[in-house]
Amino acid sequence: MTKTIKTRVQRYNPDLDDEPYFQDFDVEYEPGMTVLDALLYIQDKFDSSLAFRWECRGGQCGSCAVRVNGTARIACRTKVEPDEVLILEPLEKLPIIKDLVNDISQVTFRIRRIRPYVARDKLPEQYPEIMHSDSIEKLREIRKCIECSACLSNCPIVAETWDYPGPMIIRQLARLELDPRDVEDRIAMAMNESVYSCTTCKMCTDICPKSIDIPALAVELLRAKAVEAGYPLASGQQGFIDQIKATGRAVPEKKTPLLKEIETEEFLVDNPRGRVAFFTGCLIDYRMQNTGKALIDVLNRNGIDVIVPKEQWCCASPAFRTGDLHTAQDAARRVTEIFEKISEKYDLDTVVVACAGCGKTLREDHRPFIEEQRGEPPMFKVYDMAEYMLDVIGKENIVKPKGEIKMKITYHEPCHLGRGQGVIDQPIELLKMIPGVEYVEDPYKNRCCGAGGGVRAGQRELSQKIATTKKGYIEDTGADMITTECPFCTIQISDILKGTEIKTRYIPDLLAESYRLGDEKE
Amino acid sequence: MEYKTIMCDVLVVGAGGAGCRAAIEAAKHNLDVIMISKELLGKAHTAMAEGGYNVSLGNVDPDDNPETHFKDTIVGGNYLNNQHLAEILVRDAPQRIFDLEDMGAVFDRTPEGKIAQRPFGKQSWRRTAYASDRTGSEIMVTLTEAIRKTSVRVFDEVFATKLLVTDGKIAGICAVDLKYGDYLIFRAKSVVMATGGAGRIYKVTSNAQLDVGDGYGMAYEAGCEMIDMEMVQFHPTGMVKPESAKGRLVTEAVRGEGGILLNSEGERFMKRYYPDVMELAGRDQVARSIMTEVLEGRGSPDGGAYLSIAHLPKRIVEFRLESMIEQFEDAGVDIREEPMQVSPTAHHFMGGLKIDENASTNIPGLFASGECTGGVHGGNRLGGNALADTQVFGALSGETAAKYAKENRHLGIDRDAAIKEFERLEAMLQRKDGVSPADARDELTALMWSKVQIFRKEEDMAEAVKELRRIEKEVVPQIKVDVPVKRFNPGWHQAMEFVHMVTTARMVAEAALMRKGNRGAHYRVDADPDETGYYNIVIRKGKDGEMELTKEDLVITKITPP
Ligand SMILES: Cc1cc2nc3c(=O)[nH]c(=O)nc-3n(C[C@H](O)[C@H](O)[C@H](O)COP(=O)(O)OP(=O)(O)OC[C@H]3O[C@@H](n4cnc5c(N)ncnc54)[C@H](O)[C@@H]3O)c2cc1C
Ligand code: SF4
Ligand code: SF4
Ligand code: FES
What we know:
The complex is a heterodimer of chains A (about 525) and B (about 550).
Chain A: E1 4-11, E2 21-28, H1 35-45, E3 65-68, E4 71-74, E5 86-89, E6 96-98, E7 101-102, H2 105-112, H3 133-142, H4 150-153, H5 156-160, H6 167-178, H7 186-192, H8 203-207, H9 214-228, H10 235-247, H11 258-261, E8 266-267, E9 274-279, H12 281-286, H13 289-301, E10 304-307, H14 317-322, H15 325-346, E11 350-353, H16 356-374, E12 381-384, H17 385-394, E13 407-411, H18 415-421, H19 426-433, E14 437-439, H20 455-458, H21 460-477, E15 481-484, H22 487-496, E16 503-506, H23 507-521
Chain B: E1 4-7, E2 10-13, H1 17-27, E3 33-37, E4 53-54, H2 66-76, H3 83-103, E5 117-118, E6 128-129, H4 135-147, E7 153-156, E8 158-166, E9 169-177, E10 183-187, E11 190-193, H5 214-222, E12 226-227, E13 232-239, H6 253-256, E14 260-262, H7 270-273, H8 283-295, E15 305-308, H9 314-320, H10 322-330, E16 340-349, E17 352-354, E18 366-368, E19 373-374, H11 385-407, H12 415-430, H13 437-451, H14 458-475, H15 490-514, E20 536-541, E21 547-552
Parallel strand pairs in B: 1-10, 2-3, 2-11, 3-7, 11-18, 17-19
Antiparallel strand pairs in B: 4-6, 5-6, 8-9, 9-10, 12-17, 12-20, 13-16, 14-15, 15-16, 20-21
Helix pairs in contact in B: 1-4, 1-11, 2-3, 3-11, 5-15, 13-14, 13-15, 14-15
């Protein structure tokens, strides 16, 4: 029997229709089918006037970007999920010409604004022109772009304002900055083009058919060059950096920090099944002491020895994100040294993190930097706490939390946890283990809250706008509580939800609470 | 009938490698240049080219020079090339690749920092310049950047349907704005055709959606002479599965890196056909060998042969065939572990608009460059020569069209002809009963695939010709669009393309039928062994409106055929 997939396609002909509407089609499924195949099937079998673009059918031309179940993708390289309803819409932000065809003239105007070509003041004295491989190595990677515009569609900043040109165009600026032949001041241009607006949410990387790591290879690169060229950071951002340099913590001390409060660095259990070091990060140490304690408790209850080095240092995520490479790299060396010592002293090889931002920084920034510096990466593995519990301890071995928490709970996936570390389902699995919890899925759970990349610190107004959009998504779920796994997201989201009934909680806290309630019951 | 008229000095039809290069060149002459294309700027078929650009720089093999490049091109083309054009190709290829670098292209480098060059089929030296396996994309991106620097007015998603000729000279074109459905006339002092090939007249092809042969159809109708239309290159290795990927190119580099071909019995069958060169025989030779295996019942389950690279170290495959891994991953095959299934796919049109050393056609004011022209590559094109062609002749046609525009004025327009054309397009929308373009297209492409293919024979081709004449008379006037909407309506776009597909297919079939012996890509199972085939077939629309085919002498400058 042939399987059919229900496909809902947004139709719109502004000549005739007052507004867009959805039309359903049954598409005969074939293994390996792409979204483009489904569209061509509909065009051939049901309606030849269904409008969408395509040319190469192989991810080479960049014509066929559409939104597939909410997220922009190129149709010809996106597989159809046989057991899901397929919802196809045009890209966001850009006006619609018809059905799935967007008017991309805004993009064209926007890209022209950066003088998007190699500007030369003289041609080479002789041919062939000599250029060495190493001078073009980085450039080649970001040059793979096929201008499909998909990444523009889901960029949280572009969604709020065209002041920011979006990932594709910022990438083009970095491409030109890296080109040894280009003579324009691309850094000044990047400043003019709001390069500090990007939250480094990595949505663009996730969407990009060429997997170009735009936040790292373009945004952070341009920022680092701007810092090098003497452009000052926003005062909010500089404040973090100064704090890190002075104290190893990005924020000033208020009440007693966790690391001072605890009497020992060793939290050992009988017959441990594992041993980890806990990298607290600045906010858990200075602002969310209870979360830190909750995490230690949760791990101990699950038979894990936890070592909490009392001397820790900021991962310097704010410095990596904003381009102060000096501070950033200094911190990377220091953190590596501290945790390698601890690993050796306590014979462990695993560091657990409960902050999405720190985890991403340790994995994606420290690791390659250290490896490049000394030829070998840090000697320890880094795990997010939920990832550690599910993937290392294992679901079947996790001690069941028994205290009931009767609530409708949804989840915000921190950008630097989901796309930054590939941790997507584990936190939700943990939530679902808590008795009484009714988990409600937010289809937009992975959308940026607007806190990251130095945006909350540097551009509060923009950050607020992104958060307000996020608030809408959260409210639409009808949940009583939103949980997450990052202190920055927690602060941002609880700020924006002030005045609503929705509570914001950190996952380890909730888990520890359930364990405690369970104890009381017994 | 309502239409708008847009004025310019030079009009370039097509925005692939050739069209963009022509527009850039023409714009240097203080002229108003318009470039139109069916797809968005930067998305043309040229972006799909993978392997590289042939140029005898001698960066890797210092003994290479334009002479050898010329010789390889003529021998590869089976001596049918217009040798004047081939001389221009090899002469200008170096400066044109430097132009690309001036515009910002980033080709891969040698250790000394020069442009790197790799070996490609049937060439004496390592000559093919490249940017990984995305050379076409690199060129397209560069040209797009460069176009954005010029004052060229880009009208993308505009479909040219007819050339307008006044007193035998070019005067402009009729077109449709695909976005909103408006009828447009572009009036220009000179026009450059750079409309690419027509792989899409075959059921299985490596070509982009746009390559249906509009340029061939329009030029023929306007009275332009066409040459070598029977010469269609089939690339031996196209994808077989999944259905939607059928025909997608599996780059020659796979065999270049050591890939081997096996039949269903696990036999490395190339040893029975070309034991000396095995898998690295010419494209046509490998294609025929694969097809013979399939026809004799030793094909793979989905009607192809196995191409395996699994015996090579994974590291090498991952480094050099990055995008092939990706392409087959999409199809659920890990080429590091398992063989690919491949079979031939329609790939390149050697024939097309007949041009002279000025890239000028026989219609004054009409110039042409790129894959839509014929003569440069003769009976067979070497891998890597097409990208060079787009740049060399693109620039040349841009320059000569600019000169012509400087020396000539706008001609008046045959408004009756234009209105008739728009009425024809409008009628497709209004027609209630008729044939849908999707069905008509399926019939045509299947016909070409089965009757005018790799192995050709008299009765097949005769039947194809008969069928195509019938289709032209009976189906073309009956094409109807299901939904009568002008705003971005792909059904209508396909209907507009269909007539051009039929004309193109007819030219291929009629010329193929005329050529009795084997030569170049034209291979007959019933070939006349006595025919050397040293002539070109030229096609034009006769006074009576019938298709006229004549044999013409080869254009020889340096190398006389053996
Ligand atoms: C998969 C693949 C790989 C290849 N790899 C190589 C390689 O490695 N090296 C090499 O040398 N060659 C290669 N080729 C061949 C080469 O890519 C083409 O020959 C070349 O790109 C053609 O360029 P072009 O500018 O002539 O036409 P195209 O790039 O095909 O552009 C044609 C243009 O004409 C426009 N057009 C057509 N009809 C109309 C109309 N009616 N109205 C308005 N506009 C119109 C189109 O919109 C388009 O902009 C490859 C081909 C394929 C299919
Ligand atoms: S990382 Fe996020 S905010 Fe930055 S450019 Fe990409 S999508 Fe936009
Ligand atoms: S960066 Fe990636 S997603 Fe964005 S336009 Fe380029 S190819 Fe598309
Ligand atoms: S059709 Fe070209 S990228 Fe999808």
